[in-house]
Amino acid sequence: xxxxxxxxxxxxEFEQQFADELEVMAEIDYEPPRQTKVSELRNKKPxxxxxxxxxxxxxxxxxxxxxxxxxxxxQQSSVLxxxxxxxxxxxxxxxxxxxxxxxxxxxxxxxxCRQDVAxxxxxxxxxxxxxxxxPSSPEDYSRSTSNSVQAVPASTLDISGLxxxxxxxxxxxxxxxxxxxxxxxxxxxxSVTDSSGxxxxxxxxxxxxxxxxxxxxxxxxxxSLGLLSVPIEVLMEQVAERRHRxxxxxSQRLTEMLNSRIDEEFGELDGGEPExxxxxxxxxxxxxxxxxLWVDRFSPRHYTELLSDDFTNRCLLKWLKLWDTVVFGREKxxxxxxxxxxDNKLSFQQKDQQNPRxxxxxxxxxxxxxxxxxxxxxxxxxxxxxxxPPGLGKTTLAxxxxxxxxxxxxxxxxxxxxxxxxFQKRIDTATQMKSxxxxxxxxxCLVIDEIDGAPTAAINVLLATLNRKESRETDAETAGxxxxxxxxxxxTESVLLRPIICICNDLYVPALRQLRQQAFxxxxxxxxxxxxVQRLAEISRRQDMKVDTGALMALCEKTDNxxxxxxxxxxxxxxxxxxxxxxxxxxxxxxGLKDQNKGLFSVWQEIFQLPRxxxxxxxxxxxxxxxxxxxxxxxxxxxxxxxxxxxxxxxxEKLTQGLYDNFLSMKLKDPSLRGVCSALEWLGFSDILxxxxxxxxxxxxxxxxxxxxxxxxxxxxxxSVPRINxxxxxxxxxxxxxxxxxxxxxxxxxxxxxIRSRVGVLCLxxxxxxxxxxxxxxxxxxxxxxxxxxxxxxxxxxxVDTMLSYNLTYRQDRSPxxxxxxxxxxxxxxxxxxxxxxxxxxxxxxKQMIAREIELERMRRAEAVLQARNPQRRNEEExxxxxxxxxxxxxxxxxxxxxxxxxxxxxVETRPEVDFFGRALxxxxxxxxxxxxxxxGKAVSVELQMGKAVGNSDVWFRFNEGVSNAVRRxxxxxxxx
Amino acid sequence: xxxWVDKYRPTLLGxxxxxxxxxxxxxxxVQCGDFPxxxxxGPSGAGKKTRIMCLLRELYGPGVEKLRxxxxxxxxxxxxxxxxxxxxxxxxxxxxxSDAGNSDRVVxxxxxxxxxxxxxxxSSTQRxxxxxxxxxxxxxxxxxxxxxxxxxxKYMSTCRLILCCNSTSKVIGPIRxxxxxxxxxxxxxxxxxSVLTSVCRxxxxxxxxxxxxxxxxxxxxxxxxxxxxxxxxxxxxYPFSADQDIPDTDWEVYLxxxxxxxxxxxxxxxxxxxxxxxxxxxxxxxxxxxxIKGLVAELLSNCDGHLKAEVAQAAAxxxxxLQLGNKAIYHLEAxxxxxxxxxxxxxxDGLDAMMI
Lengths: 977, 356
What we know:
The structure holds two protein chains of two kinds. Helix content of chain A is 57%, strand content 5%. By secondary structure, chain A is mostly helical. Chain B has helices spanning 4-7, 20-31, 48-60, 104-117, 142-154, 173-178, 189-203, 209-218, 223-236, 250-264, 268-283, 288-300, 306-324, 328-355, and strands at 38-41, 68-75, 81-88, 92-95, 130-135, 159-165, 180-183. In chain B, strands 2-3-4-5-6-1-7 form a seven-stranded mixed beta sheet, with helices on both faces. The mean pLDDT of chain B is 88. The interface between A and B is large, with 68 and 73 residues.
């Protein structure tokens, strides 16, 4: 406030003394200044303020005032302060002037520009030819320019109400009364800094103080009657504020509309739009705010501008058009036999191919597009799945086509949360609702970008949405198609009626497997370099970069026709200040390179094949200049290339495998085998390397791995096209080793521990097994074993013994040819025998016989073990074994035996009687049988019972246990008889 | 118990057929009722395990022959479950920790510690210590061997370790120094012959001395193999004849054929064939060291003079790398290629010399 002080110097100490207070009060108070004095000096703002109070008769005068460039809202506010505060103490005529002067320096520009807008609109309407064009502030530049361009149409178009526009200027003034140069002493404030660095303070009003001060102010004022609780000024201000907002919105909308209309016009003109773009671009350049990526700025806005493959574009568009019936309710081209123009080419093709036994991919795609709509008039495939490497324009295509077909695009991508529930919610929102607010009442088209990263659960949700069926189809059908449509509108909760476009890079992600079958698949072919180059040239021309086509070709090649990468590289170079681009630069550039993910086969191919001799490029010569000697340089170049290739492929294990499996089948001109030796040396080295890496977690060694392919390339690369086989030897060997090992382990598992402790897997495979198999193949006469001599029998017993102790047996198996054969079980034969030298085998009959003997022996042993365990049965068995020695089980007198068992069971099973609740009942009379059965005389008692119960009568029965065990009691035959 | 190998295996130290002096020493060692940790090593088929079992029998009595198989599952700190089978009696526990592969360290730590930490309650009826018998120690990883070091000292009062392996070269020094090393050498040809004859006599068969000798030689003095061969001979043809065919293990035959293939032609195509054969051998669980050893033995017989040295050196080089690496096939094939190159050069030089 230095100037302030200077100016008023001695004049009033009062003010000096109470400067702060005065200011505060000024903020609060809204006492209008004395009209007579101030109105002349003031610009339109105070006048408009006045307007609110009195009437709008002074408009024209105000307009004159507006033309003064210095005038601004802030000035008036500061003018207001003293005038309202100190009506009596101050010399009113002088003061405002000074205020004006001093404040004009500091008036914040932001305010002004707001005012500008208002003014512009007003003037455009009221007097179009008015010459006032206020100096545009930078912030508002673009809008103002566009306005200036479209000044005439703006005036001719009438849109919003006139009243609003007229009202706007005064509103602007009232809205900005409290701008201070320094923070107010009391009360809250907000500091605002404008673009030129001036800081001003906006004081916040406290409602209480406002009211309090108001009352005072009202008392003081001449004409306030105090009828309103809220002073009229405040009300006025509120109203004005609202109006202003409306006006600003309106003006923005207008500008947008105009812009878009112009865009459309230019777009139709084809080529007109670039100019506009260019202009915009130039504007941005001038402003120094060209922060937008070229990729965005030059992204295609229309179908005709798309760079991607035409066929793909057309297919997607046609698919989207299939939805027209259901979405827009148009009865439509699907009914027609064939949409004429896109199919011309195809029908030719079909004619050409006389026997269409094998359909081409194109034909299949066409068929899909021709297919009938389903019952809801939807196309057969409800989802289009676009796939292809990055930078081909998939997302752009989806957006543009959806827009082109009249949809409102709703995009979901990997940046959104894609848990199943949210996914569901968003899909539903997008497909079943539509925006009611705003001008675009287009139906939605859901674009799910980067779907290959979505979790499987989310994709399942999508699938479920696709496959939803309407519950009450029958009703709909009876009601007919017309009502069907209406019905759908009502209860669309269930069925999907909007197209969904999914985009992914990798089509073969496991999560997409289900979706793949239900989706209309569109694979993007690589962009044509010629078209890309054309576009790049256009962009660089617009950016004033001098670029020759060769360089652009090189760039395309380098980035693998990745549109995004190309444009980014261009912009990068541009921003670096390079206005020229030639081939050499492109060659030497390391930017724009990406980790290409080439297939393994192509990598192997490149390793084993010398690069074709290309025409010399500038870049290569450059390298040649750096090195000396052409031969060495190409070798070095090749080495670099292979190193890069190998390190970017990432799958070293597989890569090495492929090299190892294939290098010997190459045409080797290597009579001394030196190359082969060194190749194997390399393989051994890389093996040790990877072992160290894996074992010691020392992954810094990984950087040496790509040198193996490079070495192989230098050793074995030839000009002829190599035939590469997929490396499976290692895997096969691994599985077979595993198989062998498993057989051995299975064999060992059941071997008796005393033998087991002497035989490990290793020793089994090395020493024992081969010979063991010899041992178990004795020469057996092909006769019934009954007829064997003692020695032969002995031999057989030994054989069976051996096989049992080594857990071997024969198992009948059916070969694929339908023959039955006996195989060793576990099949260690394969493990021990090499395929090369077949050994003597036993005959089928012999094996069968052995298998049977083994089975018998095994039973015998099991029985022996059992007997050893419960000695009671031994006596019984002994009797039997005495009779039938060697056979399976004593099988005789079968009904008796069975009965015996039954009775025995009942005897054994007799439990203390219990009642329903499990309490033991005291038996009224002891059953005879239980009483008789003692510990020692069980066998006797069995006999006894049998004699009593069964032996005496012809009737016997067996109690089959029922399901109900609620009440059970033993019933004896003697009770029945 | 029907194979002769199992049937006629001695179970007492006094009844061992050869290295009787060593058997006596072992007996003396155990006599006092205690012994240090043992490291028993020697080639396969020399009778290491037999000797160890005899020793245990001497120590604990016949109870040690009541064996049972115990399946144990150990959870590694990485939550990986390791299934391991061990053979145990009341007095000892036999584990092949190398079955667990890379997690053998966990097995060593858990299993041995649990055994070692449990104290015998009644020391009057039993020895104060249990014996843990670890087989194939040379196949243990270094980690596992290091895990063993401290355990061996710490639980000396309750536990004795008997380590059994083929070669001490892969057993780390600290372990070797903590053990009493016992080498069980292969029996001499005569000893093998006498064992064979005595076994045949017990079977009531007559074995011609010449055949016995041939078997002994063919088996490479590996007694287990010799007995199996003998039994296989018996199965093939009983009244033995001195010049009858002695069956051999398939893989050895196959290896010989491979070696012949290498010698007969040296070209990338042949190398490819050899590769297939090497794979075949590897899939039959034949360890690569043994393959390379067998190959060298066969190939050397086809070389002369200074070539032998060169080949032997190459073999040593590649076997060393084999131990360092993981994929055996690379190193085996590298050796074969190296041999081919050397051999071819040698032959061509010889041819040139002849021409001149």
